[in-house]
Amino acid sequence: MLIAFAFFLLPMLAGGLVRLIRPDAHWMRGLLSFSGAFLLSVVFLHMLPELYAEVGTTIGYWILGGFLLQVVLEYFSHGIEHGHVHVHGKGSKALPLITLASLCIHSFAEGIPFADPAVAGDIHFLTGVLLHKMPMAIALASVLDRSGSSPSRSWSLLVVFALAAPLGILFGGTVGEGLGHHFLDNMLGLAIGMLLHISTTIIFESSPEHRFNAARFGAVILGAGLAALTIH
Q1: Burial category of 6 from C-beta neighbours within 10 Å (exposed 0-12, middle 13-18, buried 19 and up)
Q2: For the residues 128-153, what does the mean pLDDT come to?
Q3: Three-state DSSP state, 92
């Protein structure tokens, strides 16, 4: 319940943060680099080895499927998952509903594995996912804030997005047990594949024109190092 509330509260806090202080782009890129590296380190050093040991090599198909699913979703979301805020609707500044739908599908799928108490209790994975959610939520809130939508519509859409992950947790907890012994494990593999795509994209695209930037490189090293030092 607390985790579902955290997934809901984070986008709402991001909406308030964007309206109050309008986060600086340099700060956003630093947060993106740190969160992407932390999440990537957690996935490679902790989640993947344990998942393969528990399920076997067949989990690789779900991980690959999640990676490819994220490629499709980002075609419609325009990269909001990794901090991009340049979304253009045809003839309108409003956020396209297909973009919101793709973000909700991502969050819903990401939430399902947290119905498993073992995943919900994994502080490293939970921290990595929440760190990834914050810049994603800030980017979405920024797009909504800059759109031609009224404040009430913008907040309504943000609430819809905020509910996606808790609904995924609810779905996993109520329906998951009837869909097979390894359903939640498979959904974890799917989510990890999606997160692998996002975290690698964040690291490679966090610097404009792919130029070396010492501050963002430091954020990557800090994120990966912090995860590596605290996992074992």
Answers
A1: middle
A2: 83
A3: strand
